[in-house]
Amino acid sequence: MKENKVRKEPLIKLSRREDIDRKHSWTYRALAIVAALILDAIIIMVTVHMNPLDIYETMFMGAFGTSRKVWITLKDLSLLLLISIALTPAYKMKFWNLGGEGQVLMGAWATAFCMLYLGDKLPHGVLLLVMFLAAIVVGAIWAMIPAVFKAKWGTNETLFTLMMNYVAIQLIAYFVIKWEVPKGSGHVGIINQSTQAGWLPYIGTNSYALIVILVAIVTVGMYVYLKYSKHGYEISVVGESQRTATYVGISVDKVIIRTLFLSGAICGFAGWLMVSGSGHTITTSIAGGMGFTGIMVSWLAQFNVIVMILCSLLIVFMGHGASEIATSFGLNEAFGDILTGIIIFFIIGVEFFIHYKVHTRKSGKEVA
Amino acid sequence: MFSLVAFIPRAILQGMPLLFGCTGETISEKVGSLNLGIPGVMYVGAICGVIGSFLYEQSCGGDVVPIVAILIPFLACLAGALLMGLLFAFLTVTLRANQNVVGLAMTTFGVGFGNFFGGSLMKLTGSAVPSIALSATSKCFRKALPFADDCGAFGKIFLSYGFMTYLAVAIAVVTALVLTKTRIGLQLRAIGENPATADAAGIDVTKYKYFAICIGCMIAGLGGLFYVMDYANGVWSNDAFGDRGWLAIALVIFTLWKPNIAIFGSILFGGLYILNLFIPGASMATKELYKMLPYLVTIIVLVITSMRRKREHQPPEALGLPYFREDR
Predict the structure, then answer these.
(1) Domain housing A209
(2) A332, B238: Cβ pair inside 8 Å?
(3) The whole model's pTM is what?
(4) By the 8 A CB rule, do B109 and A337 touch?
(5) Shortest CB distance from B298 goes to which of A163, A177, A333?
(6) If you measure CA to CA, which chain B residue comes closest to A344?
(7) β-bridge mates for residue A203, sequence order
């Protein structure tokens, strides 16, 4: 190469933003969501030939149209939020717990097990307590298995927890056939329909209010735990640097196992709510992919509880709204997954522009 | 009686979608991209092929020209999978987003995309057929060698498949050779082990990552197409593909990132998937437990490799990590 050749600067240069101010990042996120909603509206227009404003009105009615719909939306919002909350301490520790779905399912399984076998043997209050304990212990064990291997041998937790989901799904599939009523139907049916043994009590006539309250309590508890407790501090140190943690005398293995115990226990708790509080049955799809959606919510929110609530709300709203549109046009329910997926892609993409500055060659000025 | 001649072809048919998915995922993981969107990509590949073939069959009234009937879904499938690959590459490589999150979002999106168009295609095109059954196209895909039937058991085990089965094996062999024996393969692996070192050695990390992710997704997409056109006789039913995408990812770990081993691994997984049909007295319930076996053996392999710490059996060192040159 010639020595005197003038080297051009690269066309685009990137640098990491040192100070990310709140207003700036929120404007970007809001813009991304608006852009995603516009793209979604275009897709709906093309598929069902509807005017975009009507689309969002129909979606709004689908999610909040009647007081019953509002409560269903609130219930789904709470459950998604709960699972995201459950996964958060693990992520804060930089432990990829992709096994939320399986942990929820195992909690649900333990709950259904107790309802079926102890439903007529224990008084209602005791039964609920036993179910609760069984669900959180089983969920926690399911999460602790990969954690122990990670702590002792460094086994890749992303892949391990992912595989545990499918072990759980097949286990549930086995028990669904064992417990099916009537035989050969492939469904367990509503458990204890006549006695309502092991059903979470209603508040007045409202079957979902208690779920919302319980989730709110766990949310606040987790916030305090992560922010103000010694455990929470240890989690963030391990997340920042395992070497630092070891150096200051934190037992990394212990923190990993303990945190995953907590993470799995809350997932199990979610499973308990799903069976005892809303579904009263068990299927392999009872967690409805929320174990995976929760991962996205938890990560997108970056441990911020308010963002987590808003994210969950957006996802639940889109799901319910899209299924309303799909039903009224005779289309498939999976419509919601497409629309939600697009929103998530936009939110993921915008993080880049929040964290990096883009300079162009010409002016050296900042574009974004 | 357990008949090996009946069992092996069915295990192979079950295994081939996994082999496509596994080869694709391996290529992607070799450059350090853990693409958990593969299940979604396989759905998108399948449904794009179905849409292409559906429109073609509708337009020519069932009187298909074999080569066109194969090419249209094939190209549609590759195009759909390529777009998904570009999306993953753009978000994780250019925008440096987290791979796990993007992957999971792509799976949600892809499965939704497949089920939506699978469930709504008739409605959207206003056609009168009750369900998507592309039997004419499927026949072209399933056409085996004419003399396969005359070769007895050998013919049944080795020659009785459509062209995509051989394609899957060929792709796996070629991938294994490219990854281990060529310069390109060495450079790809270097990126997966340590992108900063590869970058310093003059390898264009971004270009190679895009390339590997897109090729990987296209190969995986073919797995979806194989499932619909060959295995399922051209009949699309929602969620029928099931968890095969995740099995493909499990297979990558099980075969220790080696596509040539994956040829046998996929047949083994396929066999485990249908083992219950060949075991006398197995109930519906225990059938579900057999389906758990592939995941259990994968976990066992994962645990054992992490305990033994043999260097050549480890996942790529930089698997799942984003690379930003300016970061130190």
Answers:
(1) 39-360
(2) yes
(3) 0.88
(4) yes
(5) A163
(6) B105
(7) A206
Residues 143-202 of B with CB under 8 A from A: none
The answer to whether A352 contacts chain B (CB < 8 Å) is: yes
* pLDDT at position A15: 75
Domain count, chain A: 1
Lowest mean pLDDT across A35-49, A131-145, B79-93: A35-49
Cβ count near A348 (within 10 Å): 21
On whether residue A231 sits in a domain, the answer given is yes
- DSSP H or E stretch at residue A358: strand A356-360
Residue at A37: amino acid letter: L
Domain assignment present for A28: no
A154 vs B contacts (CB less than 8 Å): 306
Residue A1 forms part of a structural domain:
no
Nearest CA in chain B to A177: B285
pLDDT tens digits, one per residue of A19-57 = 667 777 788 888 998 999 888 888 888 877 777 778 788
Q: How far is B304 from chain A (nearest CA, A)?
A: 9
pLDDT, mean over chain B: 86
What is the ipTM metric for this complex? Answer: 0.87
Interface of B with A in 98-137 (CB under 8 A): 98, 100-102, 104-120, 123-124
Instruction: Scan residues 4-43 of B and list those with Cβ closer than 8 Å to A.
Output: 34, 36
Q: Please give the average per-residue pLDDT across B43-71, as a whole number.
A: 86
Could you tell me the sign of the dihedral formed by the alpha carbons of B308, B313, B319, B320, in that order? negative
Choose from A29, A48, A162, A350 for mutation: most chain B CBs within 10 A: A162
B188, B246 in Cβ contact below 8 A? no
Read off the DSSP letter of residue B65: -
Chain B's closest residue to A172, CA to CA, is B288
Instruction: Note whether A177 contacts B327, CB cutoff 8 Å.
Output: no
SS3 A341: helix
- Three-state SS annotation for B94-115: HCCCCHHHHHHHHHHHHHHHHH
Backbone dihedral region for residue B162 (phi beyond 0: left; psi -120 to 50: alpha; all else: beta)? beta
Instruction: Collapse the DSSP code of B221 into the 3-class scheme (helix H, G, I; strand E, B; otherwise coil) and give the result.
Output: helix
DSSP string, B145-193: PTTGGGGHHHIIIII-S-HHHHHHHHHHHHHHHHHHHSHHHHHHHHHHH
Digit-coded pLDDT (tens) for B256-313: 899 999 999 999 988 888 877 777 766 777 878 888 888 898 899 888 888 887 777 7
From chain A, the residues in CB contact with B311 under 8 A are none
The reply to whether A98 falls in a domain is yes
Question: Cβ B295–A14 below 8 Å, yes or no?
Answer: no
- CATH code, A242: 1.10.3470
Report domain extents, chain B: 5-313
Rounded to a whole number of angstroms, the distance from the CA of A206 to the nearest CA of chain B is: 32
B5-313: CATH topology is ABC transporter involved in vitamin B12 uptake, BtuC (1.10.3470)
Local confidence band at A10 (pLDDT 50, 70, 90 cut-offs):
low
Whether A180 and chain B come into contact, CB under 8 Å, resolves to: no
